[in-house]
Amino acid sequence: MSLKTRPANRVNAQSAARQGAPFSENPGRQGAVCAGMGKTVGLLILLIISTWLSPIMNSATAVELAPQLYKTTLANGLTLLVKEIPSIKVATVQIWVKAGSVYEDADEAGITHLIEHMIFKGTPTRGAGGVAAAIEEAGGQINAYTSYEYTVYHATLSARHWGLALEVLTDAVLNSTFDAQELEREKKVVLEEIAMREDRPQFRLFEQLMAESYQEHPYGLPVIGTRQSVSSFSREDIIDYVGKHYHPENFTVVVVGDVKFGDIDKRVGELLGDLPKGGAPSPELPREPVRTEAGFFKIADQIRQTHMAVSFPVTPFSHPDSAVLDVIAGLLGHGDTSRLYNRLRNEEGLVYQISASAFTPRDPGLFEIFATLDSDKLKPALESALTEVFKLKYLPVDEEELARVKRSLESDFVFGLERVEGQARILGSFEFLTGDPREDAYLSRVRSVTREDVMRVAASFFEPRGLTAGYIAPENAGLNLTGEDIAEIAGKAENLARHGVPASLVADAFLPNVYQYRLANGIRLVVREDNRVETVAIRAIFPGGLRSETEATNGAFAFIAELLPKGAADLSARQLAIKIADMAGSINGFNGKNTFGVKADFLARFFEPGLGLVRDILLDPAFSEEEAEKIRPELLSRLEQQEDSLPTLAFLNFNKVLYRGHPYALNTAGREETIRAFSVDQLKEIYRRHAVPDEMVLAVSGAVAAGEVRDLVEKTFGGWQLPAPPETTPVLTEESILPPEPPGRPELVRIVKDREQLHILVGFLGVAMSSSDRFALEILDTVLSGQSGRLFVSLRDRQSLAYSLSSFSQFGLDTGSFGIYIGTSPDKKDQVIKAVWKELFKARQEPISEAELEKAVNLLIGQYELNLQTHGSQAMELGLNKAYGLGLDFGTRYVKALQEVTPPQVLDVARRYIQPDRYVMVLVGAKPGGQPEDSPETGQNSAQPEMSSGEPGK
Fold it and tell me: What does residue 213 show for φ and ψ, rounded to 5 degrees?
């Protein structure tokens, strides 16, 4: 008789979902038989694939969970599930009992399985063999199986006989006599079953793998028990065990077929509704400790064939990553197209058979690999298998391969629903393990698994130290592997997997699937593959912008950014615009404090022609006189608009004073004098000096393949060579720009405007974007900002002093700023300034709280992630990080650095950068009461002497 072991908590994509196909990949989970019948019946391993389900609350009122799927709970705690399928003429009735081997005491090993055998050995009204005969005489089938967490008794027959099946199963479960003589006979049957397992090397390997993988949890014990334990059981032992576990709170009745819920509900109530509640609650099971080193075992026996087993600890059934593990199992070891089969069997000839599966029960499970091979190939096979497993941590899977595996899993699942028994098993298993019988979320979760999910989950669980490996081999095989050998093999496989990553792949990038290349002419290419949406973004970035301007050239890059996309090669501005519009795309110039360039966005199918237009714009821009004269007044108008925006005016003057002598003191929009004076030839010359291939970063993100993008960029831009160096180069270099010093004393700027409001800005010299202080400073900024930040709560909510306020932190290449902006009424100026200094001084005196720190870190990380949703933002982030020398792994380091900041570190940066005697204050707007008429005014902050004494606001 075959043991009914754990048939319900795993995926077997080859056969488990198809009724009638025997499962032989994993001997520990194969086969089950009817406990009272004299013949062995192949019983499928149930396809239960983990999904993310929300448990529902039991109620005495029936609930229709889905069309024709009903759930109700009787007053005594028994659960009833009914699935009506009017189009089929059969029905299955199953009684699930929360009695599995994990709930057995130390002296009860195997008793659950033995009871499952004895249930069919007779009741007061049906003698030995009578239970099975009653079902078979009606043309049906009856069977049972035992799992770690439950025992299932089931009968399938014509739907018109569902009532008979329910009555027979109820009679067997509630009224079995457990005849002493039958018990002794059945114990001998189970002992033979144990002997049979001992004679099968794959069973022995499987049981030893479980024992090594679970050294504390009862999953490590065989469901069938031991010779000693089975031999010791008496009728009283069985009755005691049934009394503890066979009570209605542990019963779930599942009926599927051409039935009516109302009829089933009524009959179940008649047969089982009067059962009294009782029994002890299920015991708390021990938790398996986290492994700190790889485990190893070996078995030598009188056999001819070697078998290998590997496991890694993974999630329980209810964890959302279980669905990802099922997909990974499909990728690695389901069928002839799987990676392990193809690599080890087809390409390397190391194994005869190999498979992988995810065992995800109620408690943490295992990811398992089993292989059949020759003894002399054990070491290379283990190394190769582990290398394939570890590769999933570093290399994104191919989208086509992933889609194929997900379709296969969906197919297996759907085929498993063809028979009523399959549907009932799905319902019962999900109910037992999640509290919700519905399986529809499963397909949704499998369909949603991404390449990023695979890499993330693989990195979470596939570590060499978590490995358990072993083998069973012939005694004369000469294998002398040790635990040290296994650890060495695992370490080598890890290195091979990591080093097998293409040099172009950025393994530690915050966004996955990022590649980088360097072309022969110096162009740095960054590509992110992301096929979620069929769009693509292109960002061509050059050093320049404000940091490369002087007073005499201020505004050049603002002008160039507007002029670049206005014609290229032999295309006029309108002709170029039409070509772009025909592709439903966009191309624009941009400039900032440190860079300038071109940004383009297209549907992915227009990537190649779109990239061609970007090339034409960069390599052969028109710099049309006609277009320049259209743009010039627009730029001048932008300067006029800045004058009308008081917050903008405040920041412009703040930068002018704080960064005095540094390019950041200039206006990114330029100066009126220079904008009016620029000739097209001057702009073209400035562009040619900065737009050179070895200074360009080209960033591409979207539904593209990195290798194909590299080839296309090489073809498109490969002929672009460096121009001859000019006789003179008035371009600012790193050496010619020195970071500014903090103001030697407080500086005040007053700009009086005929407005109703007053805008106040108080700020300090900050840090460069590469500074390690930036992370704590950003957290301080976040603690002060926002509607729940200190400034808003204090100045607006409590004191009603301001209608608009926020702190800010800006990071440049070699310097930055930190400060506070407030919009208020002129008559509240003094109160506002005093309140602001009070908050700044508080930040210098007291550490922020742990709650404030946690909130700020979560907000910063969340905003960073939210800002990277579009392909355009991804391309710009990657391109700028590359251009600034921050590295393509900056996002990963950024998040980690934020998470490592402590309150004392925030206090430290507050004391170092909030300098009460070295700040800039700007007031723009309505004339403050008591101030002189002259405007603007720049000088020492004599109007606030108390704020320059080192104790501001006190």
Answer: -75, -35
pLDDT, position 205: 96
- Residue 698 carries which side chain, given as an amino acid letter? L
Residue 617 CA to residue 629 CA, distance in Å, equals: 19
- β-bridge mates for residue 91, sequence order: 157, 257
- Supply the pLDDT for residue 736: 60
Both tokens of 298, joined, read: 């070996």
DSSP string, 421-483: HHHHHHHHHHHHHHS----HHHHHHHHH--HHHHHHHHHHH--GGG-EEEEEEEGGG-----H
- Taking residue 572's Cβ as centre, other Cβ atoms within 10 Å add up to 15
Which one, of 214, 238, 253, lies nearest residue 102 by Cα?
A: 214
Using CA atoms, how far apart are residues 823 and 833, in angstroms rounded to an integer?
11
How far is CA 146 from its chain centroid? 35
Confidence grade of residue 48 (pLDDT, cut at 50, 70, 90): very low
Side-by-side strand order, sheet with 514-518: 514-518, 524-529, 697-702, 535-543, 595-603, 586-591
Position 525 pLDDT exceeds 50: yes
* Whole-angstrom distance, CA of residue 772 vs CA of residue 782: 17
pLDDT (tens digit, 9 = 90+) per residue, 824-880?
Answer: 999 999 999 999 999 999 999 999 999 999 999 999 999 999 999 999 999 999 999
Q: For residue 307, give every residue at least 6 positions away whose Cβ sits within 8 Å of its Cβ, in sequence order, or none.
A: 201, 202, 205, 370, 371, 372, 373, 471, 472, 473
User: How many Å separate Cα 391 from the centre of its chain?
Assistant: 18
Tokens at residue 675, please?
């904008």
Q: Is the peptide bond before 693 cis (omega within 30 degrees of 0)?
A: no
Higher pLDDT residue, 24 or 607? 607
Q: What residues have CB less than 8 Å from 493, skipping those under 6 apart? A: 382, 383, 384, 386, 387, 389, 390, 464
Q: How many Cβ atoms sit within 10 Å of the Cβ of residue 128? A: 17
Residue (of 475, 311, 270, 370) closest to 23 by Cα position: 370
HSE-up (13 A, CA, CB side) for residue 843: 33
How far apart are alpha carbons 132 and 152 in whole angstroms? 15
Question: In the 8-state DSSP scheme, what is residue 795?
Answer: I
Give residues with Cβ within 8 angstroms of 511, minimum separation 6.
528, 530, 868, 874, 878, 891
Query: What does the angle CA 131 – CA 132 – CA 135 come to, to the nearest 5 degrees?
Result: 95
**Would you tell me how many other CB atoms lie within 10 Å of the CB of residue 270?**
12
Residue 780: how many other CB atoms lie within 10 Å = 27
How many contiguous H segments (helices) and E segments (strands) does the chain have? 31, 24
Grade residue 292 by pLDDT with cuts at 50, 70 and 90.
confident
State in Å, rounded, how far the first CA of the chain is from the last one: 87
326 residue type, one letter? D
